[in-house]
Amino acid sequence: EAQVTQNPRYLITVTGKKLTVTCSQNMNHEYMSWYRQDPGLGLRQIYYSMNVEVTDKGDVPEGYKVSRKEKRNFPLILESPSPNQTSLYFCASSLSGFGTGVNQPQHFGDGTRLSIL
Amino acid sequence: SQQGEEDPQALSIQEGENATMNCSYKTSINNLQWYRQNSGRGLVHLILIRSNEREKHSGRLRVTLDTSKKSSSLLITASRAADTASYFCATEDRSSNTGKLIFGQGTTLQVKP
């Protein structure tokens, strides 16, 4: 089954304790992205990756890191989490086509709810 | 400011009725997409309409796009209780070429059995 898998689904942790949220897709998609969803602010892009070893900042990258060493994986790293990073996080992927005018819809994972105390 | 903004914010209808949601955006776009989000779950892609298209159908869904007014509408016909969810429009800025989707705040639809 084609899917985007995020882990963990839920995490409660404390300020400053490094954490990683994993994201994996099995569709051979080039494009991957991380969003956070907050009440009243909607979904905002954190980082994206056009392909392996190519990553770039989205709208709200502060406090986050990503890597794209393999096509299927795109982990989100919070080196020193703070309470303002408490949020619902989504990983998404797509076949790309950006820049060619043949853009593809994005497939989303089920989300990771992070609470940072 | 938000690119896509949905209207209404919340909608409650009876099963069998039609539901219409509207979306407005600000910049020139490559395409506009509609997504559904069930409570506690990820977003599911419903339909994509390109900037050179005016109307698109998929099952009980009908999407229109008016680029002159920078607006789109999503019509769900013969609604079912299972359609209860939040619906988001998302646009990709033509000038960005990053693939970034800009989401509106969403319309929460409740379909009563």
**Count of alpha and pi helical runs of chain A:** 0
Work out the helicity level of chain B.
under 10%
Helix-strand sequence of chain A = EEEEEEEEEEE
Radius of gyration of chain B: 13 Å
* Distance from first to last alpha carbon of chain A: 36 Å
Low-pLDDT runs of 5+ residues of chain B are none
Shape of chain B: globular
Biggest sheet of chain B, in brief? Answer: 6 strands, mixed
Report the portion of residues of chain A in β strands. over 45%
Oligomeric nature of the chains: heterodimer
The count of DSSP E runs of length 2 or more, i.e. the number of strands of chain B, is 11
Give an account of the 3D structure.
The complex is a heterodimer of chains A (117) and B (113). By secondary structure, chain A is mainly beta. Helices cover 0% and strands 49% of the residues of chain A. In chain A, strand 4 (31-38) and strand 5 (42-51) form a beta hairpin. Chain A is globular. Chain B has 113 residues and is an all-beta fold. In chain B, the strands form 2 sheets. In chain B, strands 2, 4, 5, 9, 10 and 11 form a 6-stranded mixed β-sheet that branches. The model of chain B has no long low-confidence stretch (mean pLDDT 89). Classes of the chains: A mainly beta (117), B mainly beta (113). The interface between A and B is medium-sized, with 27 and 23 residues.
Furnish the topology, listing elements before pairings.
The complex is a heterodimer of chains A (about 120) and B (about 110).
Chain A: E1 4-7, E2 10-13, E3 19-25, E4 31-38, E5 42-51, E6 54-57, E7 65-66, E8 76-78, E9 87-94, E10 107-108, E11 112-116
Parallel strand pairs in A: 2-11
Antiparallel strand pairs in A: 1-3, 3-8, 4-5, 4-9, 5-6, 7-8, 9-10, 9-11
Chain B: E1 5-7, E2 10-14, E3 19-24, E4 29-37, E5 43-50, E6 55-58, E7 61-66, E8 71-76, E9 85-93, E10 102-103, E11 107-112
Parallel strand pairs in B: 2-11
Antiparallel strand pairs in B: 1-3, 3-8, 4-5, 4-9, 6-7, 7-8, 9-10, 9-11
